What we know:
The structure holds 2 protein chains of 2 kinds.
Chain A lengths: L5 E5 L3 H14 L3 E5 L2 H10 L4 E4 L8 H11 L4 E6 L4 H11 L3 E4 L4 H46 L1
Parallel strand pairs in A: 1-2, 1-3, 3-4, 4-5
Helix pairs in contact in A: 2-3, 3-4
Chain B lengths: L6 H57 L5 H34 L8 E3 L1 H16 L3 E7 L5 E3 L1 H17 L5 E10 L2 E8 L6 H6 L17 H12 L3 E7 L3 E9 L6
Parallel strand pairs in B: 2-4
Antiparallel strand pairs in B: 1-3, 4-5, 5-7, 6-7
Amino acid sequence: MNPQPEVVLVDDEEMVLTSVSALLMLETECNVHTFLSPAEAIRHLETHPVDLVVSDYLMPQMNGIQLLAKSKELQPEAARVLLTGHADKASAIQAINAVGLYHYLEKPWENAQLLMIVSSAVERTQLLRQVQAMLSDLDNANDSLKDIQTRLIKAFL
Amino acid sequence: MEPTPAPDLELEHLRAQVAAMSKDAILAQLAAGVIHEINTPIASIFSNIDVIERSLDALEAQLGPASPPKALGLVKVIRNLVQVDRMACQRIAGIIRSLKLHARGEEEGMRTAGLNGLVEDSLLLVGSEYKRRITFVTDLGDLPPVECNPQLIGQALLNLLVNAAQAIEGEGRVTIRTSVDGDWAVISIADSGSGMTDEVKEKIFRTAFSTKALGVGTGLGLPLTYRIITEQHHGTITFDSQLGRGTTFEVRIPIKSKEQ
């Protein structure tokens, strides 16, 4: 993975944040930012590019789907994962459809599965960013070509 | 075995049913809340156990075989304790899974599920209640996944297991077997209990009939089980009972759903 992946974890339970960040710090190269409140997580997302947002569903102030919708608005390319103890089909369907969820995980989660999801989600985001950068380079190159073409035409006229 | 309830006793039974049903609804609601509250800490502990084991692997690799025996011994002690924690958590998680399956708050539809897993989950609940006097023996065959409503099948199995345990006075044995017979998945539950008289045999699937004391049986368990198996799963439920030797219930569920 190129630059150290940035992961945001949001859960109103401190113990979940500690457990998941301990796993990610031990087994991945990710830089993990943990937040007990969705509002604080949003403030972070407003100013820092991240590769992945993992959020709980039931939280005070704002639920996980609302938070991930905000994350999609701020950083559409960052992958979104819902890690929920409140497993009902309606919230899962809503999350997948409305938020473009990368993965829906239920508590208790399997660490091996969580690690696989994190690594593939981060890889996907980084590839997406690379493609965007290449497209932007291509646009710039195209603009320069047009510029050269215009100047050449002008030189010959 | 008590005789058939007289008409005035039937009224008493109906009253008991209503009381039991509203009590069940409150308990189910409470159970759903407790399950939710326990789920997160258990998830966290499960994850931590795994992370501790991963850390011990890394630590052992760092220490190497030439490390002081005391250090390697300590790693081993921690490893053993973590394994015990994992087993303890698995037991709690099993009970939670089983409660979740039986709490009426979460309605589930038809899906593909393994019947052996449902038997084991139901047994966890019944086993913890009756393990002091009843030995539960399982002989679970190789069953393919079956299209079913796991919550309802769990409810039916729970009813049959509780009935089997309650049919035994004092110590006894309940044997649960699963197998495949052609297009059917077969579950049999045999108890070493008192068996049924011919009169009781005729009435067991009737609503409001119960041989149990007031407050113990509602007379709803077997009729409900019958409907779950025959109407909702297009299966069959039969029994063979001999006085003084016990009763065996056999549930057959089609492996391929009739709706497919």
